[in-house]
Structures are given as structure tokens and as C-alpha cells.
Amino acid sequence: MLASTVSSKILRAIALKEGFHFEETLTGFKWMGNRARELLDQNKIVLFAYEEAIGYMCGSAVLDKDGVSAAAIAGEMTSYLAAKNITLSQQLTAVYEEYGYHITKNSYFICHDQAVIRAMFDRLRHYGNQEDVSYPSQCGGVAITAVRDLTTGYDSSQADNKAVLPSSTSSQMITFSFSNGGVATMRTSGTEPKIKYYTELCAAPGNSDAKGLQKELDDLVNAIVEDFFQPQKNNLLSKPE
């Protein structure tokens, strides 16, 4: 199974427990479709791929997002669950109970000044140190355990500090992993004057306090916005309500 790197990590959690292979790609279905093609050429079976807010690839008949097959399979699942008197919400809760709650919160800021955007991301690369590369070590009191910067190709979780996914200096994208299971990615849009953020709290199975997890994520997001985005200082416009 495949997912883009800004999508929920729940497929990773399911893969770890069920034993199937899971990979992340860059954002955009072309990356998942191309990787699926490579895996098929290696005689692998590609069951599923998806990207947050974009779509689903169910099976390998169409190596792209396909709402027709996704709708058919969603209908089949709904019918199957209904025959067992199980609602979709109940099934989602069962998935969370089995593999861990995954709470997400995504949004964006609008900024038309490329110099401001570059300065904002460069500040994160030289956090507290203007000379050397030095990323933040915590945010909101939560320790940062790993940093991946796909603009520069840096990844602190790799032995050689080199990112596995392709990097590009033409766009900004930094991902922070936190000690409490949080993950936050900040990236610029390729088509709009937006700085997007994708955040998720990945809880361990057994922690079913959804409200508590939501508050924990909300607090972390608030800290990220204030400490990393600095919307007042950078004159960033919030996402319209």
C-alpha cells in the first residue's frame, strides 16, 4: 500500500501490525502511480494508494486517483457493514481501537511574498544559530525527534542524514516528528500562494481518549503556528473560514 507523505500515517500503523509493505511518496498521485508501476514490475501486488484530500487508487487497474472505483468499493463496504448492523462511524472507531487513533488537523496561510516565505523556512534551518544548520529541538514543550527537509535533502532519521525521498530546492518542505507521536509537515504550494501545514497525532493502540488526543494535537498545532509560522510578524493571512 502507498500514501503520500502528507497523508495520515494510519496505513503505516496497519502495515506494521498486519505485515504488508507500505511506502510513502512525494505529494501528487503521479508519484504513487509511478511507484505502483515499479512495484508491479517487481511482481508485487499493489492493493491501495491514497492522498489526503485528493483521492484513492483501489487496486492497479487504474494507476491514478479514481473516484469511480473508490465509490464502488465504498458502497460495497457500506453494504457489507450494514448487513452486520455496523455503521461506518462504528467501523472507523474499530479501526482506531485496533491500530491506534490518528487525529489530523490541516490548514494553510496565504503569503504572496516569496522573500518572506524563504526567510521563514531558512529561520527553521538555522534555529537559534545563523551560521550552522540547526533545526528546532522542541515545540510547545514537546521534543522533536526527527527532522526531514526535502528542500535540502536532509533527514536526521537516516544514518547518513540524507533523505530517501527526492528533494528539490524549487519548493519548501520540512517535516518534524515529535516524541508524543505527532508529525507536522510545512510546505509551499506549487500552484497557489499558500504555505500549508499537515499535522497528525498518532496514538498507540489502547489510548482511546479521542478528546484528550484532539486537545494534545490542538495545543501542538497552536505552538507550531506561533513559533514556526509567526503569522503576525510575517503578515500571513489565515485560511478563510
UniProtKB/TrEMBL annotation:
GO terms for biological process: carbohydrate metabolic process; purine ribonucleoside salvage. Keywords: Isomerase, Magnesium, Metal-binding. One of its GO terms (molecular function) is metal ion binding. Pfam families: PGM_PMM_III (PF02880). Residues 3-99 form the Alpha-D-phosphohexomutase alpha/beta/alpha domain. InterPro entries: A-D-PHexomutase_a/b/a-I/II/III, A-D-PHexomutase_a/b/a-III, A-D-PHexomutase_C_sf. GO terms for cellular component: nucleus. Gene3D superfamilies: Alpha-D-Glucose-1,6-Bisphosphate, subunit A, domain 3 (3.40.120.10). This is Alpha-D-phosphohexomutase alpha/beta/alpha domain-containing protein. The lineage of its organism: Eukaryota, Metazoa, Chordata, Craniata, Vertebrata. The gene is LOC116362654.
